[in-house]
Design a protein that fits this description.
Blueprint: H1 2-30, H2 46-55, H3 62-74, H4 88-123, H5 129-142, H6 145-159, H7 182-188, H8 192-228, H9 232-239, H10 244-281, H11 287-296, H12 300-328, H13 330-334
Length: 335
């Protein structure tokens, strides 16, 4: 049964990616504008334009273009970027790790912060401190990530210049990385000065992405904890003399964490999508920042590759979330 379920999910993932590929391919070719016109000089001859169009396969019919592109994608060839004149897969491999590090660190911050505030709000139930927690959480929930990014730039980058405003690492830091995962590699290789510099560049974008997600986690987890705290097994544990903190962490949390994991996984996909604007604000060299440049330049191969990568990330995240929900729910695990 487990093998059948996995095969069904993989089949649905393949169908979903195929649908994404069809939609993005058609939409990019029906919108106005000619990407070739952005690459040539004003005095280029019709022969030069035709040769360049043939080079990128834009002279064939739409179905033929799609089949040629899909056949190449299956074997790992995403084409050549029109604006950057480089292999799309190489560009994605260079920029994707930066976005993954940023998103994962933002998720960890959101989970820790949101979980701690949810537990605090549960412990402060029916006390003067509960409205304060709910008000602060509501503020974090109401402000979108790009507004947090602009506010952090003004406060921590301009008024009180504590953290770097842009980039991923200080250009003056002379270090050779073996992988594009700067944060992880610098920590594993014990280069703590480099790690501190990379982490400092991530603080503001991580907070901008993590605060709204932390607020969502707080709201959902707090409601689940409050619902669990009125169950019979909690009352029985309270009669045995358990402290409130132990009741929340040891008894209520494990039964309230399932719905929170499911919603956090869904919101994490939106967090990755939010990196597009946040990376642009902080000039962070990830795929989000590159996506905006690709759209501005109408770089069809690069946009297609980026959309497929985002689609694959969303599918993988949803699969992982489903597995975590089953792992934390014995009834689903044994059902």
């Amino acid at each position: 049964m487990i093998a059948v379920s996995i095969l069904k999910r993989l089949l649905m993932a393949a169908i979903t990616l195929f649908g994404v590929a069809v939609i993005v391919f058609v939409l990019l070719r029906v919108v106005p504008g000619d990407p070739i016109a952005m690459m040539i000089s004003p005095g280029a001859s019709p022969e030069s334009i035709a040769a360049l169009r043939a080079q990128y396969g834009l002279d064939a019919s739409l179905p033929v273009q799609f089949l040629v592109w899909l056949k190449a994608v299956v074997v790992g060839d995403f084409g050549t970027s029109i604006s950057l004149r480089r292999n799309v897969l190489e560009l994605l491999a260079e920029r994707l790790p930066a976005t993954l590090e940023l998103a994962i660190v933002a998720l960890l911050v959101a989970v820790v912060l949101g979980g701690a505030v949810a537990v605090l709000g549960t412990l402060l139930r029916r006390t003067p401190g509960e409205p304060v927690v709910d008000t602060v959480n509501g503020l974090c929930l109401a402000v979108p990530d790009f507004v947090w990014a602009l506010a952090l730039v003004l406060v921590l980058g301009v008024a009180f210049p504590v953290f770097p405003l842009s980039g991923r690492i200080n250009p003056g830091v002379q270090v050779d990385f073996a992988t594009p995962f700067y944060l992880i590699e610098s920590l594993v290789t014990l280069r703590f000065k480099v790690f501190a510099d990379v982490a400092a560049h991530m603080v503001m974008p991580v907070l901008a992405l993590g605060l709204p997600l932390a607020a969502i986690i707080t709201r959902v987890l707090k409601e689940a904890l409050l619902e669990a705290m009125v169950q019979d097994y909690i009352l029985l544990a309270r009669l045995k003399g358990m402290s409130s903190l132990r009741l929340v962490l040891q008894e209520a949390l494990r039964n309230a964490i399932g719905p929170t994991i499911a919603l956090t996984g869904v919101q994490f996909t939106f967090l990755i999508g939010g990196t597009v604007i946040v990376e642009r604000i902080f000039a962070y060299p990830g795929i989000g920042n590159m996506a905006i440049d690709a759209v501005i330049n109408r770089d069809l191969p690069l946009i297609q590759g980026l959309v497929l990568v985002f689609g694959a990330l969303f599918i993988v995240i949803n699969l992982l979330v489903d597995m975590l929900v089953v792992a934390f729910n014995p009834r689903l695990r044994h059902g």
